[in-house]
Amino acid sequence: QVQLVQSGAEVKKPGASVKVSCKASGYTFTSYGISWVRQAPGQGLEWMGWISAYNGNTNYAQKLQGRVTMTTDTSTSTAYMELRSLRSDDTAVYYCARRGDSSGFDYWGQGTLVTVSS
Amino acid sequence: SYELTQPPSVSVSPGQTARITCSGDALPKQYAYWYQQKPGQAPVLVIYKDSERPSGIPERFSGSSSGTTVTLTISGVQAEDEADYYCQSADSSGTYEFGGGTKLTVL
After folding, report:
1. Is A54 an 8 Å CB contact of chain B?
2. What is the pLDDT of residues A63-113, one digit of tens each?
3. Does A27 touch chain B (CB under 8 A)?
4. Measured between alpha carbons, how far is A85 from B21 in angstroms, rounded to an integer?
5. Is the CB of B43 less than 8 angstroms away from the CB of A44?
6. Facing B45 at nearest CB: one of A37, A62, A104
7. Can you say whether the dihedral through the CA atoms of B92, B93, B94, B96 is positive or negative?
8. What pLDDT digit, counting tens, does each position of A2-40 carry?
């Protein structure tokens, strides 16, 4: 069965960086993209960007351009999302999700809480 | 970027039909997707490509599209359907957007 398992919770200071991992199993990793979505406490879903696991092409949300980098390691079927220059308003649960061409985000990771606090 | 607009809340009694709308200028040209999110859980895809239902999603969930508005319909609402619902679409470059979310309350 398809599973996306994310790394554990993180606490970071303002200005630091965080790197969240998302290990996929149960399907051919390179046949789908991985998208990243975050949700601040009590708020809605915010799309951050996605990466093609096939060729590494990326598409980032404009508001995060320059601070976010998404990568994949096809040898371990793992996707990574790094966010730099963290601010308090980056505090959120970060989700990875499998992206199909027209099938939407059909499988999601369990979420990773990133807390940014001095 | 573009915007998707949803009502903040919808309330229905058990057994009735709930309709949640999502409006956006890009919707006539792009597919819409719907996600259900219960407290403390990851979102779950309930509708894709405007009206397709993933395997395992109950038949009472359906989607439709008309012009700049897409609608998620839940027929015969059950208590377990109480959740936040988000619409989503993408532009031609693969940039995605979520609606602000609608809290469905089952009275």
Report:
1. no
2. 999 999 999 999 999 999 999 999 999 999 999 999 987 878 999 999 999
3. no
4. 37
5. no
6. A104
7. negative
8. 999 999 999 999 999 999 999 999 999 999 999 999 999
